[in-house]
Amino acid sequence: MTRNRLYLALCIALLAGYSWLAWSLWHGQTQNAFTPCPIKNITGIPCPSCGSTRSLTALAKGHFTEALLINPLGLLAAAVMLTVPLWLLYDITFTKDTLYKSFKDFENTLKIKWVAISLIILVLANWIWNIYKGL
User: What does the CA dihedral 57, 58, 62, 65 come to, rounded to 10 degrees?
Assistant: First the structure.
């Protein structure tokens, strides 16, 4: 992936993420609210990222522990949603490619077998946690 394509994809993903979060905060989230998750809609079983929106809305309201209990991936999403726009702005303003280089380094790190297996185990553990909670 080229630098420009990555930056465009990140901008689109951030715009979608912030739009969805704003809509969720505006309309409120309930346990039986609409979910865009095709896995949950088709199977009734939550995916590893189910509950991330509720986690982000709880975090936006200052409920850190609640956000962590709903879905720990929400905290990761919050970190990305706060860091990446500033990083993009820095790179675009100063015509740098630090984010792109870090992305490429991260891709290479994921190719290390023990790193990939560790992350897969963490995602599976989160998925089991989501199913156990009945998200």
Answer: -150
